């Protein structure tokens, strides 16, 4: 768990809003959240606040802003840590980071100093670099020779907002640090915001919203097939049961059977199961027109008389 929170920076109003004082900004915000008050304590060469009832903590914790200037930060940290028997593993140093852009932050335990003079002196005075570090991105000027002047200048408003957003997000993980659950604290600090959902594709010009091919249980119906079905309309199915009879219907079979085959019908294909005439056989000759007319007249008279007789009975 973390028992000592150290914000690195430089004392004095001329440095108050400079990039190098990002660690001081963090401690100020934590003191407000926990209801603490930073007071000058010459024994520890800095501004100190003791919080007795911090959520998640099993005992008192300390907030520290060294007033020794950045290069001698370890003098203040080591004095307080030794007096209250706080180990390096129970210390979190919050500082500005050139290698991260504004709005980004990273947290880790141990490692190098990255050329940061405050971290260098802490490591030397504590005799160990195994303390925790919260790195608040401030961006890089682009040239090494401009770094000293860059960190001692005030950031633009948008960069300051990015740093403040990181401070607010990391403060939400303080309770986990006080409980000693550093794995969850790291996960919360390093969590990325959720990706925005891609916009839905706009419908084609001239097509009404929701327009598309009609669907059936087997899948979508092609537009051409759907149009043909709409024009043709529903097909009626035959009704079950006996159908009413009429004189015309009953007479039709008699007329069909009474009529002699014409040349046109005789030239059509023979029904299935019949044999074609043998090769070389004499073709059947058609009756003369007079005979055909007489036969047709006689057949019609017989069929009509038969139909009328049925209706009378």
Which labels suit this protein?
9 strands; Rossmann fold; 11 helices; 13% strand; 313 residues; alpha/beta; rod-shaped
Characterize the structure shown.
- It is a single chain.
- The chain is α/β, with parallel strands linked by helices and 313 residues long.
- It has a domain at 4-190: 3-Layer(aba) Sandwich (Rossmann fold), CATH 3.40.50.
- Helix content is 38%, strand content 13%.
- It is built from 11 helices and 9 strands.
- The chain has helices spanning 22-34, 73-83, 117-126, 147-151, 157-171, 174-179, 182-190, 223-232, 247-258, 263-266, 289-312, and strands spanning 4-7, 39-41, 46-51, 61-66, 91-97, 105-109, 132-137, 215-216, 219-220.
- A 7-stranded mixed β-sheet has the order 2-3-4-1-5-7-6, sandwiched between helices. A two-stranded antiparallel sheet has the order 8-9.
- A hairpin with a 2-residue loop joins strand 8 and strand 9.
- The longest helix has 24 residues, at 289-312.
Q: Strands of the largest sheet, in order across it?
A: 2-3-4-1-5-7-6
SSE order, one letter for each helix or strand = EHEEEHEEHEHHHHEEHHHH
* Distance from first to last alpha carbon: 115 Å
Structural class: alpha/beta
Oligomer: single chain
Strand content: 5-15%
Rg, please? 51 Å
Mean pLDDT equals 80
CATH class of the domain at 4-190: Alpha Beta
- In total, the number of strands is 9
Biggest sheet features = 7 strands, mixed
Low-confidence stretches: 221-238, 240-282
Can you lay out the helices and strands and say which pair or pack?
Layout: E1 4-7, H1 22-34, E2 39-41, E3 46-51, E4 61-66, H2 73-83, E5 91-97, E6 105-109, H3 117-126, E7 132-137, H4 147-151, H5 157-171, H6 174-179, H7 182-190, E8 215-216, E9 219-220, H8 223-232, H9 247-258, H10 263-266, H11 289-312
Parallel strand pairs: 1-4, 1-5, 5-7
Antiparallel strand pairs: 2-3, 3-4, 6-7, 8-9
Helix pairs in contact: 1-5, 2-3, 9-11
